């Protein structure tokens, strides 16, 4: 479903990604781990089409299509969803209004009927319940005045409503207490199926106890230096990243 | 005297025979004074501090003629501007002249009087003689002087004490855009509203004309609020984007009166709105909200003054502007706190959203505080659309245009949502959406 080949990218003139290769199949969960500054979040942002990130080399195919040539909204409509590390607050834009507009845009794109207000509310209530969210958040402006945990939950909630093919979670676990982490993980696990894939970017192994990955990649200095099964995450937890960097001679 | 001023002298002579013969001698004298004042000072220039950023040279350079009452304007022209079922009374003026056939007045509460000033301008018949042309000083305001000299018609609204007008009143000024073949038309309408003690009303002033037409509207509104009176006021300026619109509203509020005035300026080529609110009794409250949108080479200038003359009065002011292309906005918000006005609580906010690199805004708060136990705050911010927010919305599948629309509407909504009349709010949103689509299409 997703093929990343020799991806190089930079931001503000600085090269952050230096040749990423990654291949994901339908229904798989891949985790991207790595120390601060390794390029984890850059990878997520490049995939979502953030305008500040410039791709200098390589290609990304999503369902066979050239993702890098698509506008951010085209990527979203094609089925890529980005759960942001720091979701932006948007004063004056009502959460429910925004989400309904987004969902109906997607549905139109997929050739489905748009949902009316009643159908939308039924769907939304169901998803909110799943994520143990306060319905009052719906009538508030997008993310405005939300706590850190509420913002992260709101991201997963949006994902649950929009039902993408690929969910990219950018450090969704950072700053979450264990209860919120369980709720968020439950939300993601409920969505897992044979077609839908997730790319989970995280700094901590803890999240992977709840969202169990099929593949773990370790990213250092803009390259994937090791890929393995879920046990790799546990080993990292024990030994730190230094253990991996030495054998491949990067230090 | 320049030729341009000569033109207005001629207009004054022509306007004489349009006036009511019943006009009190004092009003006739006031008009002469006003004309002389205007001829003495002429149009303001950018050397005048109050007009520093707004050149009215294009207005001064045109030889406008007084609009003939275009009997041609029919229901068809006016219909889109009306909101059926919303208003208790609708007074329609075409080219500054009352159009009885287009107007409608439901059954009014006892004692409420409203109608055309021309019918009995300032006469004892409608009891307006004690206020007409007395609330709006023209000494230092050339356009007010010009209006005072030249107005021949307009609306008067009188709500007696202890009377609640349940439905809002609409005063609609439509310009036909018709010319005499050579020269563009001008109109100088007048609005006078007098609310008695303990009364309550909502008044909507609308200004409109056919898109693309060039004409000049110069309006003066005088509003007097009795003790404890409550007024919800709207000025909706939807003029042609080629038209010139200059308007001044003067409001005087007695003890414990409450007034909210919402100014929406979406049309006009050169627009100047002056609002002067005097809180002239203890415990008065005044809210001034404003929203303006300009694209192309248009200019919209809002000058507001809130004069706290007495203690324990409060004022809240929020003005927001959206500027695209090479448009310019001016905001000048003066707050005066007189020596007697202790315990004043005044708050002013001014924001502008620039949608292009060439758009610009000049914003200036002016606080003149002569009392010592007061609370006055002001804040101004000018910025572009939040790019992170645009990206966030796009990452959820909304197009760039949709994302921008959503954010701009959110920006405007902050002002629109403060307007209590839902029908008006919806009407303004529709016009805003249309204007915005145009402004963004050019920007894209």
Could you explain the architecture of this structure?
The complex is a heterodimer of chains A (251) and B (444). By secondary structure, chain A is an alpha/beta fold. Chain A has 8 helices and 12 strands. Chain A has a 6-stranded mixed beta sheet, sandwiched between helices. In chain A, strands 2-1-4-5 form a 4-stranded antiparallel beta sheet. Chain A is globular and about 55 Å long. Chain A starts with a strand and ends in a 6-residue tail after the last helix. The mean pLDDT of chain A is 92. In chain B, α2 (25-41) crosses α5, α6 crosses α7 (400-416) and α7 (400-416) packs antiparallel against α8 (422-443). Chain B contains 8 helices and 22 strands. Chain B has helices at residues 3-16, 25-41, 57-61, 75-78, 142-150, 387-394, 400-416, 422-443; strands spanning 65-66, 89-94, 97-98, 104-105, 113-116, 154-159, 169-174, 185-187, 190-195, 200-208, 216-225, 230-238, 244-253, 258-265, 270-279, 285-294, 299-308, 314-323, 328-337, 345-354, 360-369, 375-383. The N and C termini of chain B lie far apart (47 Å). In chain B, β2 and β3 (97-98) form a beta hairpin. In chain B, 22% of the residues lie in helices and 36% in strands. The chains are: A alpha/beta (251), B alpha/beta (444). Chains A and B meet through α2, β7, α3 and β8 of A and α6 and α7 of B.
